[in-house]
Amino acid sequence: MEVIPNLKRLFNDHYTYDVVLRIDGKCYFAHSIILKYQSGYFLEYFKEGHDDKRKNGKYYIDCSCLMKSCIVVKNWYDIFNKEDCKDENDRFHNVEFYYDYEIFGKFLSYFYGCPIYMRTNEQLFTIAYLAKKFKVTGLTKMMDGLLKYLPTAWQQNDIDYWKFTLNICKWLELDQTQLGIMNYLKMREENKVGLNNEKKRRRDEEESESSLTSLSSGSSSENSSSDEDSDSLAEN
């Protein structure tokens, strides 16, 4: 019997659940044993008991975005414009990436062996944030493997914020992405040095050619003058 296909059938199952996860007033039906196995956050949560969250043998947990108690950003690059987040020593502890019912469902489905069809950098960063928030190490590594190519699509504005982006990746524990950024910056610097050297070489060549042309032109003038003097003497 294949375990994963059967596990996928349990995602948001209305009949076998023992946990209700609320996001923005909507619910997902989950299983405590799977949540504990996949998430360090839920493992600690259920160890602590939280009997006040139980009713008729089922847990009711609100996992909505903490809109009131945190600085909420919709996309990872929005943090650049948040003055409250720019202290490097702050480590973004008061920042929440905005997520809705749908994207939380994509995140939760990973617990049940479902693939995550998120391909934009904004979505990948949000999933990486959820992986950090709920301590899902395997998902962090998966997002890291996808985001490590982030710099290849950078525009000039993104390059200008490289240091801040690097800090965000450190905060989200995206090790490969950090390495990808550093390698990109190193390659960019090497290309810049190489380009400057090439420009200098061409400039030196042009100056050298210009000097030779001037010398050649001067010699021609002298020869022309000598010829004229000779002609003048001959006439006399």
From TrEMBL:
Residues 225-236 have a biased composition (Acidic residues). SMART domains: BTB. PROSITE patterns: BTB. Residues 210-224 have a biased composition (Low complexity). Signal peptide: none annotated. Residues 17-120 form the BTB domain. Residues 195-236 are annotated as: Disordered. It comes from the Eukaryota. Gene3D superfamilies: Potassium Channel Kv1.1, Chain A. This is 17703_t:CDS:1. It comes from Funneliformis caledonium.
